[in-house]
Amino acid sequence: MGVRLEPQDEYLHELGPEPNFNESMYFNLYDPGAGLGGFFRLGNRANEGTGEMTCCLYLPDGRVAFMFKRPTVTSNDALDAAGMAFEVVRPFEELTVSYRGKVVLLDDPLAMAEPRTAFAENPYAECEVDLTYRRVSDMFGGEPDTPHERPGEEFARGHYEQLVAGAGTVRVGEDTWTVDGFGLRDHSWGPRFWQAPWYYRWLTGNAGPDFGFMASRVARRDSDDTRGGFVWDEGRLHLCRSVEVRTEWTGEDSYHRAVEAVLTSSERQWRVRGRVLSLIPLRNRRTGPDGDAMVTRISEGMTEWTLEDGRTGYGLSEYLDQLVDGAPVGVAE
Questions:
Q1: CB proximity list for 305: less than 8 A, separation 6 or greater
Q2: In this model, does residue 313 exceed pLDDT 70?
Q3: What's the confidence (pLDDT) of residue 156?
Q4: Cα 8–68–115 angle (5° rounding)?
Q5: How far is Cα 160 from Cα 187, in angstroms, rounded to an integer?
Q6: Which CATH number do you get for residue 183?
Q7: What are the start-end ranges of the H helices in 154-284?
Q8: What DSSP designation does 13 have?
Q9: Least confidently predicted of 25-39, 47-61, 210-224
């Protein structure tokens, strides 16, 4: 199966006919000097007349500053909604992220497991974000030349990722930080239901400009499905066809607190161990074809990674699980 990726893919694609057509970009970042990290996402779901905007900042004092909105979106002309905007300056080389709006300040980020209560009972602050992201690694991914998703289980027709360096300013209330760190960005387009995977584990990390990785493990309801990712090591992108993930869980709600991942390419193997510094659980709901509510939990963990040679890196560990009787389905693995 071939994969196509061209500079034009950095821009928005023609709106597809599917009711659940989604086009989205995502950026994460962590600056260990400032002790601040976060992620930003915009998704257009124009055929549904809506979008998805997420701003999440892990603050140095342990709080999380968070906002999610569903703005009205009726076209796929730009990723610019609800105070957030992404701009491509140079394809594959430089992009910008900006946000102007409110965030809710969470002393206990786990409170977002009940979003209505969390938004009602916690204070708000004004937030400004201005970041410039520049290329670190080669590109990974693109759009396959043959369909690779089963009908009804679509998540992204095209998808690519890249390790990046990010720098700029973040203001929350009266506090302002100058940040200069590393992260990962992605871009997806095509039909998407958050309920398509049974569960997945998506791990990203950077240890400076010379090392970074992405590990993905996606499970379907009726099969083991896919494992893969990449390692960026001393200027070379290594494709990994094998990914093993082990998780330590905590609490009655089973949130991940520690992760060990082994990524294997055709030439060598890398092992990374992660410690979750802060975690916020997010939620997506949809009514299924039978009328029953389908609930998806996405646990976003800002994570400190330790490499086998002792180097330290940072990134996100994102755990998506469908909830059945209130419990995440992937805990047993």
A1: 205, 207, 272, 273, 274, 312, 313, 314, 315
A2: yes
A3: 64
A4: 145
A5: 6
A6: 2.40.370
A7: none
A8: P
A9: 210-224
Instruction: Record the tokens describing residue 242, joined without a space.
Output: 């094998």
- CA 83 vs. chain centroid, Å, equals 19
Do 242 and 259 meet the contact criterion of CB atoms below 8 Å apart?
no
Quick one: pLDDT at residue 226? Answer: 86
pLDDT of residue 1: 63
Q: Considering 176, 193, 210, which residue would you say is the last residue of a domain? A: 193
Distance from C-alpha of 261 to C-alpha of 266, rounded to nearest angstrom: 17
Q: For the beta carbon of residue 72, count every other beta carbon within 10 angstroms.
A: 10
Quick: pLDDT tens for 90-137.
Answer: 999 999 999 999 999 999 999 999 999 999 999 999 999 999 999 999
Q: Are 207 and 192 in contact (CB under 8 A)?
A: no
Residue 1, token pair as written in the block: 């199966």
Question: Hey, what are 244's tokens?
Answer: 């093993």
Total number of domains in the chain: 2
Beta strands 64-69 and 80-81, pairing class: unpaired
Kindly indicate the confidence band of residue 208, based on its pLDDT and cuts at 50, 70 and 90.
Answer: very high
Tell me phi and psi for residue 122, to 5 degrees.
-120, 155
| 120 and 19 within one domain | yes
pLDDT at 151 over 60: no
Lowest-confidence segment of 15-24, 52-61, 95-104, 310-319 by average pLDDT? 15-24
4 part of a folded domain: no
Residue 3 maps to a domain: no
Take residue 46 and report the two structure tokens written for it: 């124009």
Contacts of 268 by beta carbon, 8 Å cutoff, 6+ apart: 238
136: left (phi over 0), alpha (psi -120 to 50) or beta: alpha
Q: DSSP 3-state assignment of 8?
A: helix
Tokens at residue 116, please? 């209505």
pLDDT of residue 90: 98
